[in-house]
Hints:
The chain is α/β, with parallel strands linked by helices. It folds into two domains: 12-151, Rossmann fold; 161-447, Rossmann fold (3-Layer(aba) Sandwich), CATH 3.40.50.300. It has helices at residues 17-22, 39-48, 54-70, 101-105, 110-124, 137-145, 161-165, 177-186, 192-195, 242-252, 269-279, 308-327, 335-345, 354-357, 377-385, 413-420, 439-447; strands at 12-15, 34-38, 79-80, 88-92, 130-133, 149-151, 169-172, 188-190, 205-210, 213-220, 225-228, 258-263, 286-291, 349-353, 365-369, 392-397, 427-432. The strands form three sheets. A six-stranded mixed beta sheet has the order 3-4-2-1-5-6. Strands 14-13-15-16-12-17 form a six-stranded parallel beta sheet, sandwiched between helices. Strands 7-9-10-11-8 form a five-stranded mixed beta sheet, with helices on both faces. This is PhoH family protein.
Amino acid sequence: MPRAKSDKDCKIFVLDTSVILYAHNSIMNFAEHDVVIPITVLEELDQFKKGNDTKNFEAREFIRLLDNLSKDNMIHNWTPLNGKTKGYFRILMNPDNNINANEIFGEEKNDHKILNAALHLKQTEKGRKVILVSKDINLRLKAKSLDIYAEDYETGKIKNLDELENTGKFLIENVDIDVINKLYDAHHVDGKLIFGRKKIKSNGYYILKNEKTSVLTYFNSEDNTMERVDKQLAYNVKPKNAEQTFALHAIMNPRVKLVSIQGVAGTGKTLLALAGALEQRRDYKQVYLARPIVPLSNKDIGFLPGDIKSKLNPYMEPLWDNLKFIQNQFKESDKEYQKITELVNQEKLVIQPLAYIRGRSLSNIFFIVDEAQNLTPHEVKTIISRAGENTKIIFTGDVFQIDTPYLDSQSNGLSYLIDRVKEHPLYAHIKLEKGERSDLANLANELL
């Protein structure tokens, strides 16, 4: 079927494999413009279609979507996308060009074949703007060196990261001293005494100040009250600053079912989450502590020596370190010390890679997801959608410390979560700013 439109304002977007693996339905998100998939992308997707990771799911779903869209059409021709406002798509076979990216860059690679596809469209689709869309920064730079427009896949990216950073904790100065005194005496006050009739976000944390006097508070939107927040112990772990106090309050608050804690290394994110989970262990059937596996140098864990347990141990060690730190607050003869060992042995407390837990039913579970900035938005949605009755989920991470090549501070799952659910009554977010690991660790975070 030939391309029906002749509007030169209609752009052509060339998608690479990284975009498809990030979002299988990305082909549908280019409005009235046309989309081209180089045949090299389909060849690469064939390598990803088997497995249980999210990228495998995305590959399979895209192949099914393409099959459904093509029906009886030959997909190397322009084929209409669904909907009257959508454009067309086609699969582009490996073309012959006057300019060959393989020769220019001195190496035959799949990335260069994708660049050749974009070059071919520039030559054959005269007057139309051709744009390569990729999550791979290096591929975008190569494209620009060949005078090809290139951009990131923007759908789902957080636009205002500064606003995201300010979510969760707020400072209110010049508060009436009588209000602060009442909070110390009665523990809570009517929210109207502070905010008047203004609508306030659910589960926000506030530092109320009057000159040298201050109080830590939490806004309970259910009762429209400001409640005093006191430092509390969780399995002998005590918060060391206001942000940690707020974070532990959210972790321990039974009304809040979803919590995100953002902060740099050493701010106590995972430690507080685990301590809070241990303190509430009687309220849940199991405690899961998990993190995504991000292999070093982007190599699969199969490159590491040993059996599967040996391969995974290096990735799980930071989680065990936090557990040992909590356990070592007690003597070996103390019942609290022995209880942690018992919980691990009876699998009431489970530390595993996220891939091992994905797909399980999460009912009556306290679930901590560490390093959540290395998840895609789809992975975060999948985890939360598995939550059953009496399940609480804590996501911890640093949105500026991304270890996967195709995510950044604006497109990772943790940023997406904070942005999308920031005003929901079941959700609370806290940013930890002050490092409490050591003065040396603070020096690294601040000056290096």
